[in-house]
Write a structure and sequence with these properties.
154 residues, alpha+beta, four-stranded mixed beta sheet, 4 strands
């Protein structure tokens, strides 16, 4: 009885190691992600509040010479959520929909999420609500000529 349990345990370990190796191989099919931060000094929200420094953290995959693609996460996530084998492993590899050898993939952390600025970084309870903050960032970025280029080095 103990030999069969030992054999079963060994088989489970072998299956686990194989699963980890296969998962790691899928994730390694696209270029290594690179992280960066863009800092806006004295950022003024459309609500009137000003933050001395607003940090927008981002992750990129591929080379800046590729066609830029901006991929946004859901309201409760971060760019890190999109670097899983089931997302990045299915989209960013050779021949896949967003092949990182053709596209420059930009994954920003929205303000208030991931490694971007959060309410505790400055305005605390005066930090504008999430919806108006997001629209303010989008409006401000779209008004600045070449802002995507200057943020991600395009």
């Amino acid at each position: 009885m103990s030999r069969s349990r030992a054999a079963l345990a060994a088989a489970l370990v072998l299956i686990s190691v194989t699963a980890i190796t296969v998962t790691g191989a899928m994730a390694a099919d696209y270029p290594a992600p690179k992280e960066g931060d863009w800092i806006a000094k004295d950022f003024k929200f459309h609500t009137g509040e000003t933050m001395p420094e607003l940090k927008l953290h981002y992750t990129t995959i591929g080379e800046p010479s590729g066609q830029p693609v901006l991929v946004l996460h859901g309201s409760g996530g971060s760019a890190a959520n999109m670097l899983t084998p089931t997302f990045a492993g299915e989209l960013f590899g050779p021949g896949q929909a967003l092949d990182a050898s053709k596209y420059y993939i930009i994954l920003p952390d929205s303000v208030g999420h991931g490694k971007s600025s959060k309410p505790s970084d400055g305005l605390k309870t005066a930090f504008p609500n999430m919806i108006t903050r997001t629209w303010s960032m989008r409006s401000t970025a779209s008004l600045r000529k070449g802002s995507a280029s200057s943020i991600c080095g395009l």
